[in-house]
TrEMBL record:
It comes from Rivihabitans pingtungensis. Belongs to the UreD family. The gene is ureD. It comes from the Bacteria. Keywords: Chaperone, Cytoplasm, Nickel insertion. This is Urease accessory protein UreD. HAMAP family: UreD (MF_01384). UreD, UreF and UreG form a complex that acts as a GTP-hydrolysis-dependent molecular chaperone, activating the urease apoprotein by helping to assemble the nickel containing metallocenter of UreC. The UreE protein probably delivers the nickel. GO terms for molecular function: nickel cation binding.
């Protein structure tokens, strides 16, 4: 290292990952894999046959601290299909001054499918976490998006008492905005305890589908699954189907999300659920 260079742990890690996929010879295959800094993917897998490429996104430092900026860029070619997950929880540590950021951009060509299903995100008290996503769908491209966010560490008796959680998401289809969500919660925000907010719960989960609307049998299945997993509900909106869950356990949130995914994937994608092996480790 240059004697006059600022060490990365002082300014934060600047990490980038670019992935592209193509449909080639009857299989969905990676066509580009580039990274800078501590963000990468392991070897790709085809556990459910050549149609779907599974990738595990790895952040080797194991946690995200003040000044860190993770940037992910995804490009899915026509008729390609990728399922992306992570090996474990993403931990966002306390920041004294500079926030930590994660930005995701994705472009899906006609016929492409992206399943974005990382494991839980844990925001330590004092974290200043700022996440954003911008996703563009062309034609009949389909998106399945899931996240689980844990505020504080209830098992350790830690509430999310200071810091902030900011999240901004945009979803476009053929140049038209079909989903836009913007959230900012401070550690002492009244919405954390308000009935119209998190109602005192520390874990929030989302599952979003952008594709053909669910028919009534599939909606009935989704409602039944939500009813079985506590404080959860789902609804069909113009262009997107959305499900939410509130509770106090990351494990329960993931169980709800994966139960919905298992029940509805045959309706969404005409294929049974095939869980990534990393979810069982």
């Amino acid at each position: 290292m240059n004697a006059h260079a600022t060490p990365p742990w002082h300014t934060g890690w600047q990490a980038e990952l670019e992935l592209a996929y193509q449909r080639r010879d009857g299989a969905s295959l990676p066509s580009r894999r580039w990274h800078r800094g501590p963000l990468r993917v392991q070897k790709h897998f085809h556990p459910e046959g050549p149609d779907v490429c599974h990738h595990i996104i790895v952040h080797p430092p194991g946690g995200i601290a003040g000044g860190d900026h993770l940037r992910l860029d995804l490009d899915l070619g026509p008729d390609s299909h990728a399922l992306l997950t992570s090996p474990g929880a993403a931990k966002w540590y306390r920041c004294q001054h500079t926030p930590a950021q994660q930005t995701l951009s994705a472009r899906l060509a006609a016929g492409a499918v992206l399943e974005w299903l990382p494991q839980e995100t844990i925001l330590f008290s004092g974290a200043r976490a700022e996440l954003s996503a911008h996703i563009e769908l062309a034609g009949d491209a389909r998106l399945l998006w899931g996240d689980v966010v844990c505020l504080g560490r209830p098992a350790a008796g830690e509430r999310f008492a200071c810091g902030h959680w900011a999240q901004h998401s945009e979803l476009w289809r053929n140049g038209q905005l079909i989903w836009h969500e913007q959230l900012w919660l401070d550690g002492d925000d009244p919405l954390l305890d308000a009935a119209a907010g998190l109602a005192g719960h520390g874990v929030a989960a989302t599952l979003l589908w952008a594709g053909p609307e669910l028919d009534e049998p599939a909606m009935a299945l989704a409602r039944a699954c939500c009813a079985e997993h506590g404080h959860a509900a789902c609804t069909q909106l113009p262009g997107v189907w959305l499900a939410r869950w509130l509770g106090d356990s990351a494990e329960a949130a993931l169980a709800w999300q994966r139960a919905l995914w298992t029940a509805l994937r045959p309706h969404w994608l005409q294929r049974p659920a095939h869980a990534p092996r990393i979810w069982r480790t």
